[in-house]
Amino acid sequence: MSTEKRTAAPPIAEFIIIISMMMSLTALCIDAMLPALPEIADTLQVNNPNDRQLIISVILLGNAIGGLFFGPLSDNAGRKPTIYIGYALFIAGSLLSVFASSFPIMLAGRTLQGIGLSSPRAVVMALVRDQFEGRKMARVMSFASTIFILVPIIAPSVGQGILAFAGWRAIFGFFIVFALISLIWFAIRIPETLTPENRKPFSLRHIYRSTVEILNTRIALGFTLAVGLVQGFFLGYLNSSQQIFQEQYALGDLFPLFFAIMSISIGAASLANARLVMRFGMTQLVTWAAHLEFALAIVFLAITFLYTGQPPLWLFMTLLMMVFFCVGILFGNSNALAMQPLGHLAGIGSAIIGSLSTLISTLLGTVIGQFYNGTLIPLASGMALLSGLSIFVIHWAITERTVAIECSAAD
């Protein structure tokens, strides 16, 4: 008997902490870099200020590419071996970034980091889906997201602290150490959740057929598109946040503090969602959050134009924190709804959902970030447009079958 088969499942609290650490690697590798973007751009001779945003975008592009490979691999080889391969690629990308002597090499290293990180991103969802479904799955993901959201709150401060004492290259060394800790804990404590009889062949034909099935499943496709649209304007904010806080509002070294305050609202939403989803259900919460988010985005757009792109900082933060609370409600529930009819395709299903939503959000968020012109008008415009489109696709995705599947899983 293998070691994995003998490994007992850890308590649910420990399980959530482990998967949260694995999920948080992507956020850590994005948010801890934000204070270092000007220094990296200066070292690697990047002249266009908006080009430094690509250090953020390409890691998500790598996420989208790699997920299409790691999802099917996890359905064939198992969840744990797939995680190990992804971590190896991530560490290789981190080392490439550490020694980068030019901007293209830096972007190559970041892309490789993203490809590696797509493994835990895709496989963690499959790990959870292997053991939970319906509202229980949404509840587990909400608790995981609550812990996960601590990373965006503290990551910029961590990055700025390392930057002050050791320079931006040392930040990548920190990523490697964090990755090794989470990997070793995962290897020792988490058992393999995919039994041999449930494994799928790794073949292009299987991938093609599974992809067609997923894309023809209205619930899965609709909520995947919704996640991509919502993440799109969030990534637009993320890409330009360093320029907005440090340069437009001249906050300087206070940037991590204000970034953390903004992130708290998403964590609060995830924590609240863990309770609300058991009472109201995923479809109801997603519908409410999407409409409120759109209304707030319209108000934000109107105020932004009223102040010619430079609203007072307190007003900007208040409105965006309310929007991000809605984002926190939407994220976990939409992903869980997209996965709900795909229990028989958990690995490749989570991969395609993650890759497609990430590809959409990366393209949209990069466009919003590249239009940054020293005002909040591009961000506010993108937020209003994408949140409005998300309402359309959510209503298209919600059918009587959607509610029936959720109620069946809840029972």
Structure description:
This protein is mainly α and about 400 residues long. The protein has a single domain, classed as Growth Hormone, Chain: A, CATH 1.20.1250. It is built from 17 helices and no strands. The protein is globular, with a radius of gyration of 20 Å.
Radius of gyration: 20 Å
CATH topology: Growth Hormone, Chain: A
Order of helices and strands: HHHHHHHHHHHHHHHHH
Number of DSSP helices?
Answer: 17
Helix fraction? over 70%
Element layout with pairings:
Layout: H1 3-6, H2 12-31, H3 37-43, H4 54-77, H5 79-98, H6 103-131, H7 134-148, H8 150-166, H9 169-189, H10 204-215, H11 218-248, H12 255-280, H13 282-306, H14 313-339, H15 346-370, H16 377-397, H17 400-410
Descriptive tags:
single chain; 411 residues; Growth Hormone, Chain: A; 17 helices; 82% helix
Put the structure in a nutshell.
The protein is 82% helix and 0% strand.
